[in-house]
UniProtKB/TrEMBL annotation:
Signal peptide: none annotated. Belongs to the cation transport ATPase (P-type) (TC 3.A.3) family. Type IIB subfamily. It holds the Pfam family Hydrolase_3. GO terms for biological process: regulation of cardiac conduction; regulation of cytosolic calcium ion concentration. SUPFAM superfamilies: Calcium ATPase, transduction domain A, Calcium ATPase, transmembrane domain M, HAD-like, Metal cation-transporting ATPase, ATP-binding domain N. This is Calcium-transporting ATPase. Residues 1-13 have a biased composition (Polar residues).
Length: 1171
């Protein structure tokens, strides 16, 4: 359907456009073809066709300064002609597809087959029936025979529907969530001279949009004015280098690319399906379905597919092809190679293993049961009673055997815990839903369970641990260090004017302070928070920045050096009325002060500022501020003569000889709830580390305030440079052993780059230093945090401050940017794990007892005391409900009082094993007592050797009823798995649990009193009911007895469901070919530098050769490979796609030129090297 909608969309737009072309000076088609050009080609084309960007603005009836008038009819008309900025989504899976997927479960399939056989046989009435003397016929079974098969099928249908419904609601939630994220996405445009934020979908062709650092461009456009704009176009071209944009060299801005630095304005020229990203999505939508059809006709080489498609779509597709690899990581190849590689989450791994173990045991038990029954019957009938085998009795004997088979299957059904997959699904789905309320928006389901095992959290400082509301609280102006905001009268007028101008002009004009939304609230800060803090200082000094900005509008700024992580400062040059230039600068104080040679005195006059003055200032002013946890920012300026005009591109000369105006200390207060949250983490065995770009003193001060470090402890606080020095060897390569020496004690990493963050996360995850592999969670908000978020076990992105790039790479989005929400995620994660353990403890007790009862009963009395339908009621229905009841227990704070379980802790601990076996002993003792002496206790007829077609006996009904009562009360015991005594603790906080226990009890009464033949029950008296309930209550007392036995004494108890070390290693690393490359890699490291030089030359030559060989597909493939290369931050990621492509190449050597493939091999090795 994605394809349908897209193509309809397309044709509709085409039609509209041809009819309306005349209203604007250019058609959609022209603009689309213009946007397919790059760099100089585009500049030439614009010059030839339109003149310049101003002319395009005129043709599109918009003004570069004022923007669109923004009237409704005009916007509507633009949407009609040029399309809307929205790409139709792919169709979700239908409910039936989900049902079909749920049916693929193995246990369900076994059950279905058994049920169908049973149904078939119950309707097959052989001739020669009805002569009971010759052939012993079990009449009761014959009449109710179909009931059993039907009951089994019905229960299967229940399970399937519940699972499918869960998946469906999950999908629906996720779509709701997607649309929520999309609606929240706003973009800044200029309309009628006003800067407004509008939803991305509202952008139309002709809008003037303001772009800034961290933006994901929502549409294609032309760059019309701005400074220092650098774009990361790797999502389209696969080239990881940032592309510098300028009006005269490369003005093309493409949707889906990221702004890495700078700011500016763009004229929107293509939106929605006509933008570059839109064209790709259309191709992917259409292409995906075509491929599916063709794949069915026969297996095809993925390269050929690309070739065909490239030929169909010509240039557009060629430009677009790489996206496939950037977005989907080479979707086709990977899918084929990695079907088996989808790494299961820890819990799923343990559960699968456990289910297999239980399943095997069940199979053995059921096989033995069937064999014993068959042997007993044949020996008894033909040997002991010496009955002849009469041909007319054959069908009856067959029915006997089928009955035995069904008892066997019932034993198997009871042995296999079908409730398990359901319990996991319910538990995860429930948690995800509730986590939404706790401000955790989960994008990947298993992230929520992984979080419960987390052992380390690497957190950002700004915005996560702090409120991200910057305020200036100290200042050093005119030789005085003010501990609070100075009185405006105490500052010299000249200094004041410079200060106000420096702050107002040298900041993004999109940064503003707006009046509060509610009475008595704080003013709203919009834009860059540090700049907001400085503008706040201007307002606190009773000045106003608006008049200054209106005097020097953005278009009049002569040159801007925007802030980036290398410069750590921002400067703006303006032309003064006397034609001379003035540059205002601001930035990290230690960096800007190094470039100052003068400072303003108290009288507002510049005086000499020597290095020793600077050292004194660092000691007396900057360090004390930093130790109070303040960020220090220095504001400075410099005047230039009008002639000769300075060489603005020579940054080193320009950003020097500055005059310092003031140094301010900006406070970003710690969120009030963070210290408590961090204390909880530490108590729960989770180490919190702070990774920040701030100065080390500031970082240390904040870390102490948060409680990440406590004075007197043995810990490390490092700066990025020092960290890198310590973890690299002489050749500058990172060594794992070196990281292992540092990370256990490291608590604060300051002045760190995004690469440092990635290195740290990878180092901790790959470490074998501790006996358990570390599970690392990372928070990030910046564009450059992407790699670290992807590498971590769980990546948290900030919902408010986070850039679009960070959200894409994350597993969970924190909708309130708050650290304490991470603690909630840990709680929910542990809760999921515990819920499943609770359910297991309950389920396995039922299984052990039911299997043994069925088995011994069948062997001793040739008939199971618990009938098949009764077993199914206990097993399928009660367990399904129990999984609901136990999987929806809300988390409690006590979950945070224990250490993380770790990846190889068994699912069933010794304590749980003790509980399971202890309760099984109690239940079996009572059931066998009832079975063999029950009739004497209750003075009723024995049900044991009742004639075959007698009605259901009270005796067996009492056994069934007691069994169910014991399960009900044991369900309450199962609420605690760590041997706690009070099993009722918090029971009323979980209404679902109470409802289910009472509900099951009510249904049980109905079954016993009115179930009759289908359930093999006969109604019971009140005193018999009382005894059943009394025996059930005994479970609770017995639970206390079991809790008294110390687990440590029971050494013989085995644990189960443990992931062994071998399975612990992800499959990628077990592949031998990767291993070989790893050894090779170590060898190759030595020649690394030579490799690169050679490689670059060879690559260039190959590109040239390939351009002459006109095979489109090779070029597409090369380009895809290079984009995979640039994307992969991680060796392991890369190993699979490139290996697949090589093997594909090998399988059809004729289809590829030798040069192509040497390049493939080279890029493979080199990429692995460079990491």
């Amino acid at each position: 359907m994605g394809d349908m909608t897209n193509s309809d969309f397309y044709s509709k737009n085409q039609r509209n456009e041809s009819s309306h072309g005349g209203e604007f000076g250019c058609t959609m088609e022209e603009l689309r073809s213009l946007m397919e050009l790059r760099g100089t080609e585009a500049v030439v084309k614009i010059k030839e066709t339109y003149g310049d960007t101003e002319a395009i603005c005129r043709r599109l009836k918009t003004s570069p300064v004022e923007g669109l008038p923004g009237t409704a009819p005009d916007l509507e008309k633009r949407k009609q002609i040029f399309g809307q900025n929205f790409i139709p989504p792919k169709k979700p899976k239908t409910f039936l597809q989900l049902v079909w997927e749920a049916l693929q479960d193995v246990t369900l399939i076994i059950l279905e087959i058994a049920a169908i056989i049973s149904l078939g046989l119950s309707f097959y009435h052989p001739p020669g029936e009805g002569d009971p003397d010759i052939c012993p016929e079990d009449e009761g079974e014959a009449e109710a025979g179909w009931i059993e098969g039907a009951a089994i099928l019905l229960s299967v249908i229940c399970v399937v529907l519940v699972t499918a419904f869960n998946d469906w609601s999950k999908e629906k939630q996720f779509r709701g969530l997607q649309s929520r994220i999309e609606q929240e996405q706003k973009f800044t445009v200029v309309r009628a001279g006003q800067v407004v934020q509008i939803p991305v979908a509202e952008i139309v062709v002709g809008d003037i949009a303001q772009v800034k650092y961290g933006d994901l461009l929502p549409a294609d456009g032309l760059f019309i004015q701005g400074n220092d704009l650098k774009i990361d176009e790797s999502s389209l071209t696969g080239e990881s280098d940032q592309v510098r944009k300028s009006v005269d060299k490369d003005p093309m801005l493409l949707s889906g690319t990221h702004v890495m630095e700078g700011s500016g304005r763009m004229l929107v020229t293509a939106v929605g399906v006509n933008s570059q990203t839109g064209i790709i999505f259309t191709l992917l939508g259409a292409g995906g379905e075509e491929e599916e059809k063709k794949d069915k006709k026969g297996k095809r080489n993925p390269f050929v597919a690309i070739e065909e498609r490239d030929l169909q779509d010509g240039a557009a597709a060629m430009e677009m092809q790489p996206l496939k690899s950037a977005e989907g990581g080479d979707a086709d190849d990977k899918k084929k190679a990695n079907m088996h590689k989808k790494e299961k989450s820890v819990l799923q791994g343990k559960l699968t293993k456990l289910a297999v173990q239980i399943g095997k045991a069940g199979l053995v038990m059921s096989a033995v049961t069937v064999i014993i029954l068959v042997l007993y019957f044949t020996v008894d009938t033909f040997v002991v009673n010496k009955k002849p085998w009469l041909p007319e009795c054959t069908p009856v004997y067959v029915q006997y055997f089928v009955k035995f088979f069904i008892i066997g299957v019932t034993v198997l059904v009871v042995a296999v815990p079908e409730g398990l997959p359901l319990a996991v699904t319910i538990s995860l789905a429930y948690s995800v839903k509730k986590m939404m309320k706790d401000n955790n928006l989960v994008r990947h389901l298993d992230a929520c369970e992984t979080m419960g095992n987390a052992t380390a959290i690497c957190s950002d400082k700004t915005g996560t641990l702090t409120t991200n509301r910057m305020t200036v609280v100290q200042a050093y102006v005119g030789d005085v260090h003010y501990k609070e905001i100075p009185d405006p009268s105490s500052i010299n007028d000249k200094t004041m004017e410079l200060l106000v101008n420096a702050i107002a002009i040298n900041s993004a004009y999109t940064t503003k302070i707006l009046p509060p939304e509610k009475e008595g609230a704080l003013p709203r800060q919009v834009g860059n928070k540090t700049e907001c803090g400085l503008l706040g200082l201007v307002l606190d000094l009773k000045q106003d920045y608006e008049p200054v900005r209106s005097q020097v509008p953005e278009e009049k700024l002569y040159k801007v050096y925007t802030f980036n992580s290398v410069r750590k400062s921002m400067s703006t040059v303006i032309r003064l009325p006397d034609e001379s230039f003035r540059m205002y600068s601001k930035g990290a104080s230690e960096i800007v002060l190094k470039k100052c040679c003068k400072i303003l005195s108290g009288a507002g006059e510049p005086r000499v500022f020597r290095p020793r003055d600077r050292d004194e200032m660092v000691k007396k002013v900057i360090e004390p501020m930093a130790c109070d946890g303040l960020r220090t920012i220095c504001v400075a300026y410099r005047d230039f003569p009008s002639s000769p005009e300075p060489d603005w591109d020579n940054e080193n000369d320009i950003l020097n000889d500055l005059t310092c105006i003031c140094v301010v200390g900006i406070e970003d207060p710690v969120r009030p709830e963070v210290p408590e949250a961090i204390r909880k983490c530490q108590r729960a065995g989770i180490t919190v580390r702070m990774v920040t770009g701030d100065n080390i003193n500031t970082a240390r001060a904040i870390a102490i305030k948060c409680g990440i470090i406590h004075p007197g402890e043995d810990f490390l606080c490092l700066e990025g440079k020092e960290f890198n020095r310590r973890i690299r060897n002489e050749k500058g390569e990172i060594e794992q052993e070196r990281i292992d020496k540092i990370w256990p004690k490291l608590r604060v990493l300051a002045r760190s780059s995004p690469t440092d963050k990635h290195t740290l996360v990878k180092g901790i995850i790959d470490s074998t230093h501790t006996e358990q592999r570390q599970v690392v969670a990372v928070t990030g908000d910046g564009t450059n945090d992407g790699p670290a978020l992807k590498k971590a076990d769980v990546g948290f992105a900030m919902g408010i401050a986070g850039t679009d790039v960070a959200k894409e790479a994350s597993d969970i989005i924190l909708t309130d940017d708050n650290f304490s929400s991470i603690v909630k995620a840990v709680m929910w994660g542990r809760n999921v794990y515990d819920s499943i353990s609770k359910f297991l403890q309950f389920q396995l007790t039922v299984n052990v007892v039911a299997v043994i009862v069925a088995f011994t009963g069948a062997c001793i009395t040739q008939d199971s005391p618990l009938k098949a339908v009764q077993m199914l009621w206990v097993n399928l229905i009660m367990d399904t409900f129990a999984s609901l009841a136990l999987a929806t227990e809300p988390p409690t704070e006590t979950l945070l009082l224990r250490k993380p379980y770790g990846r190889n802790k068994p699912l069933i601990s010794r304590t749980m094993m003790k509980n399971i076996l202890g309760h099984a002993v109690y239940q079996l003792t009572l059931i066998f007592t009832l079975l063999f002496v029950g009739e004497k206790m209750f003075q009723i007829d024995s049900g044991r050797n009742a004639p075959l077609h007698s009605p259901p006996s009270e005796h067996y009904t009492i056994i069934f009823n007691t069994f169910v009562m014991m399960q009900l009360f044991n369900e309450i015991n199962a609420r605690k798995i760590h041997g706690e005594r009070n099993v009722f603790d918090g029971i009323f906080r979980n209404p679902i649990f109470c409802t289910i226990v009472l509900g099951t009890f009510a249904i049980q009464i109905v079954i016993v009193q009115f179930g009759g033949k289908p359930f093999s029950c006969s109604p019971l008296q009140l005193d018999q009911w009382m005894w059943c309930i009394f025996i059930g209550l005994g479970e609770l007392v017995w639970g206390q007895v079991i809790a008294t036995i110390p687990t440590s004494r029971l050494k013989f108890l085995k644990e189960a469901g443990r992931l062994t070390q071998k399975e612990e290693i992800p499959e990628e690393e077990l592949n031998e070919d990767v291993e070989e490359i790893d050894h090779a890699e170590r060898e190759l490291r030595r020649g690394q530098i030579l490799w690169f030089r050679g490689l670059n030359r060879i690559q260039t030559q190959i590109e040239v050769v390939n351009t002459f060989k006109s095979g489109a597909s090779f070029q597409g493939a090369l380009r895809r490979q290079s984009s995979v290369t640039s994307q992969s931050q991680d060796v392991a990621n890369l190993s699979s796609p490139s290996r697949v492509s090589l093997s594909n190449a090998l399988s059809s050597p004729t289809s590829l030129p030798p040069m192509y493939w040497s390049k493939r091999c080279l890029s493979h090795v080199s990429v692995r090297d460079c990491h």
